[in-house]
Design goal:
six-stranded antiparallel sheet; Elongation Factor Tu (Ef-tu), domain 3; alpha/beta; 13 helices; 2 domains; FAD/NAD(P)-binding domain
Length: 452
């Protein structure tokens, strides 16, 4: 039986260690805390929530709620602790963050199979004599980041500056047109024209909108990549000579070049998701909905991911990772959590959950080559996230949270065309496919002598 080490005791690492122990295997859980604290951490406990205490909606007809439902069915420690420490928050699942972290801490200790050590990992070669799950999160130490940089070079990213992503079917086709500049190539871009009055109103709203404060460890991001609202501050015309430039585009409704144009580009080949080109922003999520909603085509837009700008270490998952989040270039190394390219508390924990379940089987003797037969189906939200970080065909790979744009739909379950009705059909689809996967997984656990 191969030894397993989990590096990082955040949401992904804590979940990974728990899942391994629940299968009857021991593991080491290594973390730099409490001896070292990053700029964002203050608690000595694992699974610290460093930003909001909200885990988003608990409604299973939302993407976030569906993810929670699936994680509960797979015995998630993070969901167990969250349910035990929840505080009133309407339809959202919010927690008492101190009680939540203490609960995770106690549950990890209760297994008797998790050896927890304070240790900084600074070299990927330590994975040579064991199976290692690297789950160090967005504030990975400088020494380990240097080792990752040597390993992955330009496939490793040091900050996340992403524009909002919206659902294609939520946009108003009466107010956009497809075209590429100067008519070159195919009409790949979705173009939202702005006249002068709308442009000035949009700029004024950008300047007045609420913004996320810049933390000390985020300042390098804003030196390298300017958010849209900073461009708006520089002058009235800066945006329309930059990301909102209209040159080479003719509005078919007027036959003229618009005063300004907001372009949207496909996020994946299926065309269900579009990102707002050049609109990296640090506006609050509610402000993004309000400000971009001034543009007629986006008035009813469904945001699959809001724009963010912050320090966030992550790799180009499709290039670095194989099935099961195994690093292609190393036999014994697996990644989990935000480093893989998922975004969000529960998305990170879900990544740790599924990675650990596969690593446990490898430790018990399952050949690594067999992992491809155990991938969670992308008709589940967990499977869709895993599929995104390992197979996304996006030209500009960015971290992704749970959303219906990455989910695959089984036509035997999802037949409705209206969004509300389709969402009602997604939950039974997920339940069905997750149950099939779980039965197959448990059978393998029995075959390889693991607890189930």
């Amino acid at each position: 039986m191969k030894k397993i080490k989990v590096v990082g005791a955040g949401l992904a690492g804590a979940e990974a260690a728990w899942q391994i122990a629940r299968l009857g295997l021991g593991c080491e859980l290594l973390d730099i805390k409490p001896g070292q604290m990053t700029a964002a951490h203050s608690s000595i406990y694992p699974a610290e929530l460093v930003c909001s205490n909200s885990l988003k909606s608990d409604d299973p007809q939302t993407a976030s709620g569906l993810l929670k439902r699936e994680m509960r069915q797979l015995d998630s420690i993070i969901m167990s602790a969250a349910d035990a420490t929840r505080v009133p928050a309407g339809s959202a699942l919010a927690v008492d963050r101190e009680a939540f972290a203490r609960r995770v801490d106690a549950l990890l200790d209760s297994t008797g199979l998790i050896r927890r050590r304070e240790q900084e990992i600074a070299d990927l070669d330590v994975a040579a004599d064991c199976l290692m799950i690297l789950a160090t999160g967005p504030l990975t130490t400088d020494k380990l980041m240097a080792a990752m940089a040597r390993e992955w070079g330009d496939m490793l990213y040091f900050f996340d500056a992403a524009a909002p992503i919206v659902s294609a079917d939520s946009l108003d086709p009466e107010h956009y047109f497809f075209a590429s500049r100067y008519g070159k190539g195919s009409a790949d871009y979705l173009n939202c024209p702005l006249d002068r009055d709308l442009y000035l109103k949009f700029r004024a709203a950008l300047l007045a909108a609420d913004k996320v404060p810049v933390r000390d460890f985020d300042r390098k991001v804003f030196q390298d990549c300017q958010p849209l609202e900073i461009l708006a501050e520089r002058g009235e015309d800066t945006m329309r000579f930059g990301p909102l430039k209209p040159v080479g585009l003719i509005d078919p409704r007027t036959g003229e070049v618009p005063y300004a144009v907001l372009q949207l580009r496909r996020e994946q080949s299926s065309g269900e998701m579009y990102n707002l080109v050049g609109c990296q922003t640090r506006l609050t999520f509610s402000a993004q909905r309000e400000v971009f909603g001034l543009i007629p085509a986006l008035r009813e837009a469904e945001y699959l991911r809001f724009g963010v700008m912050h320090r966030n270490h992550y790799i180009h998952g499709p290039k670095v990772l194989a099935v099961g989040n195994k690093v292609r270039s190393r036999e014994n190394l697996f990644l989990a959590g935000q480093i893989t390219g998922v975004e969000g508390y529960l998305e990170s924990a879900a990544s740790g959950l599924i990675t650990a379940r596969l690593v446990a089987l490898v430790a018990a003797g399952l050949p690594v080559d067999c992992l491809s037969s155990l991938t969670l189906p992308p008709t589940t939200m967990m499977g869709a996230l895993a599929n995104y970080v390992t197979t996304s065909d996006s030209k500009d790979f960015q971290p992704m949270n749970a959303n219906f744009g990455i989910l695959c739909y089984d036509p035997d379950f999802v037949t409705a065309r209206r969004k509300r009705e389709r969402r009602e059909q997604v939950m039974p689809m997920s339940d069905h496919h997750l149950a099939i996967w779980r039965d197959k997984y448990l059978k393998l656990c029995q075959d390889y002598g693991l607890c189930s």
